[in-house]
Structures are given as structure tokens and as C-alpha cells.
Prior knowledge:
Protein name: L-serine ammonia-lyase
Enzyme class: lyase
Shape: globular
Family: Belongs to the iron-sulfur dependent L-serine dehydratase family.
InterPro entries: ASB_dom_sf, Fe-S_L-Ser, Ser_deHydtase-like_asu, Ser_deHydtase_bsu
Number of strands: 7
GO molecular function: 4 iron, 4 sulfur cluster binding; L-serine ammonia-lyase activity; metal ion binding
Amino acid sequence: MESLRELFKIGFGPSSSHTMGPQRAASKIKEQYPNASRFEVELYGSLALTGKGHLTDYIIKQTLGKQTIVRFKSDRLPYHPNGMKFYVYQDEEILDTITAYSIGGGTVEYEGSKLQQTKQIYPHKNLKEIIQYIEDNGISFYDYVLNYEDEHFKAYLFEVLDSMFTCVQNGLHHEGVIPGRLQLKRVAKSMYQQAINTRRESDRERLLVSSYAYAVSEENACGNKIVTAPTCGASGILPAVLFYCYKQLEIPRKELIKALAVAGLFGNVIKHNATISGADGGCQAEVGSACAMAAAAYGWILELNNSLIEYAAEMGLEHNLGLTCDPVGGYVQIPCIERNGFGALRAIDAASYAKQLGYLRKNKVSFDSIVNVMKETGKDLNSAYKETSLGGLAKEFGLKDGD
């Protein structure tokens, strides 16, 4: 598995696979060919169908320069729905043709290219192997992560946590309308005010968590700085839970980075064995994965043992199985923002369930099993429900991509 640096990326919204990934690919290609006179780019599959709303063509042109032409193709490339072809020119001569795939979370893979692929640093390929290793060696999930990441990784976790918290705070202070045809009003600030004015404690706590998730998701939808966790579209869930732990439960930052690392480890297992791409697996791969990660993090905060943390994460993913990705107009707004609020609450509930139910009976479903089920469910989903805006809410609403 890759470094958690490839899972937690600090960047700009609104989409990790449709904005961050194409930008990273374009930057790498421009670096490889600094003297190219022009570029032509073809977008396939989901990138073509929802690229306008996700600003895919805009970010590619901004990165490669004014002499760039971007075309939207009606078909898809075989490896992944988020396919791109870059044609590099020097005058009228083609210097290179590079096929790239934005596979989710801003990660890019290249087909038959000189461009370097991401290094694998973790030797274990699933959670069963990881738990066996940490129990054989008497270490924790957090210790396991530090064993394989570089010496500067702890500092990076603090940087990620600070970026998440800054995003929450920014979102709680901003008002106005989110860019795009939907003209969706930002509500995180008002939701937060409602929360602090609510007398009933249980209602107040849940509203606070929701406001934190909305804050990040609205920042993402506006194209502001966020952290992929594991994607832009699901970037509000984990920060909401961690910020709640920081502000309401008064958990210190030095403990929260451990929970962040644990969340990343579970996200990495999903990414390695299934997918975190909405175009590949539907929203279960984005919100479902984020919910599982946040549930694992909250389980760590509750000081659950390894099997109960696994149980929490398993529930977080299991109860998002089959969730479709049908963004209205191709924007990361409806239903995405609301789903982040629900996902944060569901993550806390999953960890709380694990704490109570786990001592009553052993969970029959392993985390690795539910990851495999999610992968197969994603394969079975009709393409209209995998970030193409051809079905579901997007079809019902009647807006075309980028309208």
C-alpha cells in the first residue's frame, strides 16, 4: 500500500478525481515537457460527462497554458472511468501521447509512461494481515503507521489536522451562495448558530457535528483549500468528527493525530483493495469510505480495542453499501454536502454501536469482507449512478453538466 501522504492531500476542491487528479497529471506532464509548444487533452467517461461542473477542463487549461485544447469524448477508456489522453506537441510534431487515469483521491496512474508511479511502502495488503502483525508485535495501529512512514510523517499529520481545522473554521464564518447554476445557499454558519442556541444537549451535539461537516463541504464546493479524506467530495466527514473531539470533547491535538493516522490506515486498505472513486464505485466509495475512516478514528478516541475499531469501521462502510453518485449538474453540491453531514453522524454512531454491541457478541462480518463487497457492488452499479449525472437525482433535477 502507498504512503498515507497519497491519501491525505492538501489541495483545492471541488473534486479530487475531477480537479486535483487532472491538475496533478497536467503539472507532471508540463514538468516533463517544459518546452512543448502546445497540448491537446481528451477527457473520457466520467471526466467527460461531469467535467464542466467539476472544472476539469478549466484546471487543465490553467495548468498547461493558453495553447491547450480540451475535448470531451463520449466513450470511456478500459482501465478506469476517469481517463485522460494528453498529446504533447512541439510545433506540429507529436512528442508524446500519455494516457492517465485519475483513480480517486487525487491519485493518478499512468499507462505505459516514463512518468514515475507511486511507491508502495506498506508490506501488508489487508486489515487481517495488519492486525495479525500489530498483535504479534504488541504495537498499536498508530505505531504500525509510524513504522513504515518517513521520519517527518508525524509533522505531516499535524499539518493535515491543522488544514482540516482551518477549513472547518473558515466554513463556519463564510456566508453567501456557492458558485454554479444551482445557486445553493451556504448554511454551515447558520447551522452552527442554531446548535449553540439549542438547549437540549443531544440535539446540540449532533447539530454541531453536522455544521462542521457542512462547513468543510461548502468550502470544497467553492473550490477552496481542503484535505482529501479520502476524496474532496467526502472531505467533510473526518474533519467534522475530529473537530468535534477537539472542541467538545477537549481531546488534545497530539492525540488526534493518532486517530487521524488510524483513519488513514483504514482508508488505505479500502483504496488498495477496492476503490475510493465515485466514478468507479459510486458514492459508497467516497462517503462510505470516509464514514468508515471517521468511525475508526472515533473508535480510537473511545479507546476501543483493535477488533472493536474494526467493527466500527466495518459498520461505517457496510451501511453505506449501494450509495449512488448522482451529482446534480455535475456539481459537488447536491446531494454531496448533505451526505457529509449524515456521514459524520453515522461514523460516531458506528463507533458507539461497536462500543456497546461488541461486548455483547462478536461481529460476524470482517472489514476486509465488506471492502470486497463494496468493490463488487460498485462493479454492479449501473454507470448512470457512478458520477456521470445520467441517473438518480441528477436526471430528476434535469440539469446538464455545468449548466
